[in-house]
């Protein structure tokens, strides 16, 4: 048996062991929970805004959604480091780009429109929520199927 095949088999065995550790599973759980905290409340924004709870939504967005988006990146980078994924992996690079878009949309589009009552703010909020949820779906596809890995 050639040495390169043995080395490759050993590397694959080690990677399987790394992905089955408690640390990897805990980071994975924290990554998923932070994604739920980052994207879940956005489903409630439109009904809450119609009910006149703009101050509540703004507080929720700044105290839960934005920090959860940042923590999602932190835990995701931890997973990438433990799993020994390369930043040059197309799915990982695309996931980071999608995350940056979601973060920018939430900061520059959703956040300012939460405290504004104008019709244009309502349409900006709807667009921001739509883009954010689209980024969630695209990010999930990238992380589940890992194209190019």
Please provide a written account of the structure.
The model has no long low-confidence stretch (mean pLDDT 87). The protein is mostly helical and 149 residues long. The chain has helices spanning 3-18, 22-39, 42-50, 54-82, 90-114, 119-145. It has one domain (22-145). The protein is elongated. The chain has six helices and no strands.
Number of strands: 0
Class from secondary-structure proportions: mainly alpha
The overall number of domains is 1
State the helix count.
6
**Major sheet characteristics:** none
> From N to C, what is the helix and strand string?
HHHHHH
Instruction: Calculate the mean pLDDT score and round it.
Output: 87
Please give the radius of gyration in angstroms: 19 Å
Low-confidence stretches: none
Distance between the termini: 26 Å
Characterize the overall form: elongated
Helix content: over 70%
Percent strand equals under 5%
Topology:
Layout: H1 3-18, H2 22-39, H3 42-50, H4 54-82, H5 90-114, H6 119-145
Helix pairs in contact: 2-4, 3-4, 4-5, 5-6
Comma- or semicolon-separated keywords:
149 residues, 83% helix, mainly alpha
In short:
The protein is mainly alpha-helical and 149 residues long.
